[in-house]
Amino acid sequence: MILQENQSFQHQFKVNEDVYKGFINVFADRNALHTDEEFAINKGFRSKVMHGNILNGFLSYFIGELLPTEDVMILSQTINFKNPVYLNDILNFEAVVSEQSEAVQVSVFKFKFINAELQIVAAGKIQIKELS
User: Fold this and answer.
1) 54 SS3 class
2) Secondary structure letter of residue 51 according to DSSP
């Protein structure tokens, strides 16, 4: 297997205007929490809250582009949202190989996204298979 248990990865993502508008353009999710500043503030947030599934896109980028092999596919993933993400937030992504099965060529990562205030905004697990 190319990946090793306890191997870690870091990357930085920015939730910029292009990412935000691209998500809305592709998926047409215009829920007021994500698009109406006044609505979001009235609900107790400091600004519009970014779509949580933007982070799933970052996970896809991690698996597809940042691993030392392209011969992988995602089998499953879970993500728990803990704090809101706002436009122009810079998120530090950390992932570590927490489990591995050589017999079936499967690796499990534990991951988290951390904002500039050092809050975990999301965390979870992603399971991948190395293709032979």
Assistant:
1) helix
2) P
Q: Which amino acid is at 9?
A: F
Nearest-angstrom CA–CA distance, 101 and 3: 11
3-state secondary structure (DSSP) of residue 67: coil
As beta bridge partners, residue 120 has: 114
Digitized pLDDT (tens) for each residue of the chain, 132 residues in all: 789 999 999 999 999 999 999 999 999 999 999 999 999 999 999 999 999 999 999 999 999 999 999 999 999 999 999 999 999 999 999 999 999 999 999 999 999 999 999 999 999 999 999 998
| Strands of the sheet with 106-114, listed across from one edge | 8-14, 90-101, 106-114, 120-130, 72-81
Nearest to 79 by CA among 51, 47, 116: 51
Structure tokens at 55: 């982070």
In a 3-state reduction of DSSP, which class is residue 19?
Answer: helix
Enter the pTM of the model. Answer: 0.93
